Amino acid sequence: MQRSLGVAGLAGGLWLAGSIAAYADDPASHEQDSSTESSVAAPIELGGLSLGVETEDRSSVEQSSSYTDSDGNTTETESVAESSSQSDLGIDVGEISIDPAAMLATESSTSSVEAGDSGSTEGSQLTSGEVEAPVSLGGVTVTGSQQSASTTEESTTTTTDEGSASTSESTSESSATGGALEIGQLDIDPAAALSDDRESETTSTEGGVNDAESSSETSLEASSPITFEGIAATATDERSSEREIGSTVTDSEGTATTSETVSQASSNAVGVEGLDLAVDPMASVWNSTGSAATQARGIEGAESSASESDTAIWAGAPFHLGGITAAGESAQAEARQATSTVSDDEGTVTSTEQSWDATRTSFIGQTGDIAGEPWVWLTDTRSDASASAGDSEGSDSNTAQMVGYAFPFAIGDSGFASEIVDASGTNTADAITDENGTRTNERTTENQSVTRPGFVLDGAAGDPHGLLDTENAQRNRLV
Q: What percentage of the chain has pLDDT greater than the value 70?
């Protein structure tokens, strides 16, 4: 019985040990996957918008007075004054639309396997995202004007036993300014995309050998095309004034009359249009890294490691800029006229004098279309490796960089022209009428000078570019 129990106990122990060993040698594995996706959008549209305001003011004053002294002399005075002003402002905005959108997706997975003293683990992760936000802005128009006018009149008459004397004076002024600004439609379509991929792996064995590897790759792309339909602006300014003075004296000997008129006028105008723009900036970045390491403890502590990385950047912005045209004119004029007439028993004497001055300056300038395609790129490569076994060591490293750029461009014909004119003149006329007849004398003078500066550029083109390339290698050995 004792022998039987001993055999049974030994068999049971062996069976239990074998079961435990069998369970230990049975491989185990684990896996896990996950993914996430999300997106968002928010389109917005806004119809056109209009704003405006208008103001108007008017005023007038009339006044009269009369005075008679003890001698019977009478003085009468009358005056009238009027003024007015008007202004307006308007703003119109075209339709506005915005359509932002974004998307994000992630995926990840992990797995592990264990068998005794050996095991391995793997993991990966992938992330991608996209975003865009197109914007469209309808044209914007701004208009405004300001007008003002004023007039004054005044007259005085004095009557006595010997006759009468009267004087009169009137002035008038007016001004008008205006402007318009028109901005063309603007479209912008920015967009970007991101991608990131990462992987890792580790392995260990019963012999004491460990391996680890990892890699990652990242890329980014972005662009933002822009179109602009140009701009147009105008501004005007006009001013004028006039002044009249007259006097009349009548007595027993006759009548004397004098009058004078002075008028002034100025006008200024300027306009600008063009600047159509189309540009498509783009950029991309790419980066890749990798690393590996091995450790073997059973071979006198042998170790090795290596890493590498590559980076590339590219950017460009082809564009087209429409030429701009500017034109303007400024003119000023002044005229003066004086007349005197004297009549008595012997006859009539009349004298008239006119004088005027005028200046005018005008210009026009134009730049041709400008087109270019600038771009630049950069690459950077790096690698490192090292190994050791006992007292022996070795390492290698390499780096290389390269930079390039270019900017081809072309400019269309350009030019500028101007004209400056100065002019003046006088006219005098005299007439004498008596019992002998009528005698007249008239004289006219005129002066004018013109200057026309200008230049023309028959376009221009160029292609500046360059390249920079560097490389460095280093090796170290210790035995």
A: 93
Closest CA to 240 of 149, 154, 178, 170: 149
Q: Which tokens sit at 202? A: 């580790």
Q: What tokens were used for 374?
A: 């600038």
Closest CA to 128 of 214, 220, 40, 42: 220
3-class SS letters over 435-467: CCEEEEEEEEEEEEEEECCEEEECCEEECCEEE
Q: Provide CB contacts within 8 A for 316, sequence distance 6+.
A: 281, 282, 283, 373, 374, 375, 376
Domain ranges, ordered by start, for the chain: 30-478
Going from the C-alpha of 292 to that of each of 120, 304, 311, 389, the distances in angstroms are 15, 8, 19, 17
Q: How confident is the model at residue 176 (pLDDT cuts 50, 70, 90)?
A: very high
What is the spatial distance between Cα 51 and Cα 90, in angstroms, rounded to a whole number? 6
**Token digits for 452?**
């026309």
Which of 69-73, 219-223, 266-270 has the weakest average pLDDT? 69-73
pLDDT tens digits for 209-262? 788 899 999 999 999 999 999 999 999 999 999 999 999 999 888 899 999 999
Average pLDDT over residues 379-391: 89
CA distances from 82 to 65, 86, 150, 368 (A): 19, 14, 6, 51
Mean pLDDT in residue range 54-72: 89
Assess whether pLDDT exceeds 70 at residue 297: no
C-alpha 208/C-alpha 298 separation (Å) is 6
